[in-house]
Design goal:
Length: about 750
């Protein structure tokens, strides 16, 4: 009996000792943010593997096998330095590789290292935004391969983004998960300030399987800055600068954390007269971001952002519009407001869920209160055969969107099992869109509209060894076009792991469908001259792309090549139905296609030096037009404002107290139109190069001297025909940190 009791005691003691030796921990990046889906290996002293697993969404890992000897844990993921530390260390902080990778959310709606993402993704960090010193987010996007940014004149004028040949309203735009698009997809980038952004994620290609309508050609998600736990006391930053064209810019930010509560409050103000009379721009932006941790597994967050803008609109002054006082009566006002609340909960180690509510409102007013005398447009040897007459306008566009989003993620398996890890994502979204559109200078009835949209997404992610697969499908029930089903499939395979002279090699592949709902005018307008059509189908796209990523020279260099083929159909166009009354309506008529390739290069030859370069080739043309013989919009014509050749070259140098950043953007010749009937007609726009330079010199720990200049070559060019871009511009100022 004593012998049996001794055996039981021995077994019990070994069990308790093994439980005490259970090895678990958390993997963080240098900013103390969790690094999910990272491979963690448990190794014996001789390097033999005991077990491997993946971190969860909070960066937590746990091994099921005990280790009765002095074991080590190894953490390895592309873009970070491999860490090997004694087993049992609770916190593992990964250093960044010279050429970094990121953890992204937008590509899969879950936190995923980019080495496991098959989509074409670009991440612009807050540090990069600060180094460039760009005032507006639209200008930050100019360096992204596959994107073309078109601004009609100086700062604050109409700014559109075209992705891989798609239209300007084919980009789903999000702020911390809150949709910002107007109903129908349009988003005006002209006044979105860059100062309070923590990072920007851009996923190219259709993503409607994840985000529904409007994600036809890309998803662009902005993430606002939040409080940092590393600050033991409130951190205050103040910046101001001024330059030519009577430009003044200033901003303030208060940031910090107290226990489980973090906060960030910011304000930004920009005034400039630009270069042309009646093109002054005034913009004020305020934002707030509050977070509260309820224990380790639940996070509450509330964000709010407001933007008020005034912009003078002088028109196409390059075509000889007379410089007279009466043109000073046209302007554009815009007020945007966004607010949202989210709750995220890691319910178990394998199950997490998130609930988000967001509200977005934009109110735009375009006015022309005075009639200018008629004039005959001309440019170079081209001249219109008729005079152009002005007309009064007082147009208001007021739209609102309520957004509710619930998402649940279930994880099964681990990297150490032969069947790998599997993630099942279920998401449900509801959007209520409201709108009021009217020109008060005329007597026609206004457009009033309300639309409810519902969407359900199912996504399956698999990671087995070096292979990652993501399949998803969404059922969209739209208040205008009814039901649509859109699938998506994405895969990534690591041919090689590790670093060395020839480092990690990744192959990637994507296929997806996209949809876009009609805007309110196209569906609901009561004006007989532009009568809405309630039977419109959604605009659609199908896309195929694949690519290769290769790391070189111990992660000091990375080369990426992508090829894509997009087919757009059921495009909505206006067509006159009665030439006697000049009345018409909208139909699904046109088809277009866009094929091309992207070449992306990154290098960090020194710890203080970073080089980036990209080149995009794009062949975008109309394949089926409702006006097949038209010189601009006919069959086989190139799509407007999509350059065949474009590229960028960037350099960041951090030397002692100086940080210098320079970017050169090249945009090749592209199809365009004067839209005024000039003879001979203008059907293309000349190439241009914009060279931008920024620097910050740290005089003391708390004070830096800053400067920025754009169009350093002082080129005369137009991003859109008729609207001259700014000549050389410059600003200089200071930053204070306390």
């Amino acid at each position: 009996m004593r012998r049996f009791s001794g055996i039981l005691l021995c077994v019990f003691s070994l069990t308790v000792w093994a439980q005490e030796r259970k090895i678990a921990g958390t993997v963080l990046d240098p900013d103390r943010a969790a690094v999910p889906r990272t491979i963690v290996r448990l190794l014996k002293p001789d390097g033999a593997e005991v077990e491997r697993t993946l971190t969860d969404s909070l960066g937590h890992f746990e091994f099921k096998q005990p280790c009765f000897v002095e074991c080590r844990t190894e953490v390895r993921v592309a873009g970070f330095q491999t860490q090997t530390q004694p087993a049992g260390q609770k916190i593992i902080v990964l250093g960044l590789a010279p050429v970094q990778e990121k953890v992204v959310v937008t590509a899969t709606r879950t936190e995923t290292p980019t080495e496991q993402v098959g989509a074409s993704v670009t991440v612009i960090s807050g540090e990069q935004i600060e180094q460039q010193q760009q005032l507006l987010a639209g200008d930050v996007l100019r360096q992204v391969p596959g994107l073309t940014v078109i601004r009609s004149g100086g700062l604050g004028t109409t700014t559109s983004v075209f992705s891989r040949g798609g239209n300007f309203d084919y980009n789903k735009v999000l702020l911390d998960g809150i949709p910002l698009n107007e109903p129908g997809g349009r988003f005006e980038f002209s006044s979105l300030a860059a100062g309070d952004l923590d990072r920007i994620e851009i996923v190219r290609g259709p993503q409607s399987a994840l985000f529904g309508s409007d994600a036809m050609a890309s998803v662009i998600q902005f993430f606002s800055r939040h409080g940092e736990q590393e600050y033991k006391r409130p951190h205050f930053a103040l910046n101001f600068d001024a330059g030519n064209y009577k430009t003044f810019h200033g901003g303030a930010d208060l940031n910090g954390a107290i226990g489980g509560f973090d906060y960030d409050l910011s304000y930004d103000r920009l005034n400039t007269d630009n270069e042309i009379p009646n093109n002054d721009f005034r913009d004020s932006t305020g934002s707030a971001n509050f977070g509260l941790s309820l224990g380790r597994h639940t996070q509450l967050r509330w964000i709010s952002r407001g933007d008020s803008t005034f912009t003078g609109t002088p028109g196409q002054v390059a075509f000889g519009q007379p410089d007279i006082p009466s043109i000073l009566d046209s302007y554009f006002r815009k007020a945007d407001g966004y607010t949202g609340f989210s709750i995220a909960n890691q319910t178990t180690s394998r199950w997490d869920q998130r609930l988000v509510y967001g509200f977005a409102r934009t109110r735009q007013r375009s006015t022309e209160f005075g009639l200018d005398p008629p004039f005959t447009p001309h440019f170079g040897a081209s001249q219109a055969p008729f005079e152009v007459f002005d007309f009064l306008s007082n147009f208001v566009n007021d739209t609102r969107r309520h957004h509710l989003d619930y998402q649940s993620n279930l994880r099964l398996g681990s990297a150490g099992q032969s069947w790998g890890q599997h993630i099942f994502t279920f998401a449900f979204e509801w959007d209520r869109e409201n709108g009021f559109l009217n020109d008060f200078a005329f007597t026609q009835a206004p457009t009033r509209a309300q639309r409810d949209n519902f969407g359900g997404t199912f996504q399956y992610q698999m990671a087995i060894g070096r292979f990652s697969l993501t399949n998803g499908v969404r059922v969209e029930q739209n208040g205008s076009f009814g039901r649509a089903v859109v699938p998506r499939s994405s895969a990534a395979y690591l041919l090689r792991r590790g670093s060395g002279r020839l480092g990690a090699t990744k192959l990637k592949f994507n296929f997806g469908l996209g949809i876009k709902e009609p805007n309110f005018t196209e569906s609901f307008s009561p004006d007989p001259h532009f009568l809405g059509n309630p039977d419109l189908r959604p605009e659609r796209t199908s896309s195929l792309d694949f690519g290769l990523e290769q790391r070189l020279l111990n992660d000091r260099m990375k080369v990426e090549v992508n090829w894509f083929d997009n087919r757009f159909r059921d495009l909505i166009e206006f067509q006159v139905t009665n030439f006697q009354t000049f009345s018409g309506t909208f139909f699904n008529l046109n088809r277009t296609k866009a094929q091309g390739a992207e070449l992306i290069f990154e290098a960090a030859p020194l710890s203080s030096l970073r080089l980036t370069a990209s080149y995009t080739y794009l062949n975008a043309e109309i394949t089926n037009s409702n006006v097949p013989s038209d010189l601009v919009f006919g069959d086989k014509k190139q799509l407007l404002r999509r350059p065949r050749h474009s590229g960028s070259l960037g350099l960041v140098w951090d030397w002692r107290r100086l940080t210098a950043s320079t970017n050169v953007i090249y945009v090749g010749r592209r199809a365009d139109s004067d839209f005024l009937g000039l003879v001979p007609p203008l059907t293309s726009d000349a190439p241009y190069t914009n060279w931008q330079l920024a620097f910050a010199y740290r005089i003391t720990k708390h004070f830096s001297y800053t400067g920025e200049a754009a169009n350093l070559l002082d080129q005369h060019y137009m991003e859109a025909l008729g609207f001259p871009a700014l000549r050389i511009s410059y600003r200089t100022g200071a930053r204070l940190n306390f």
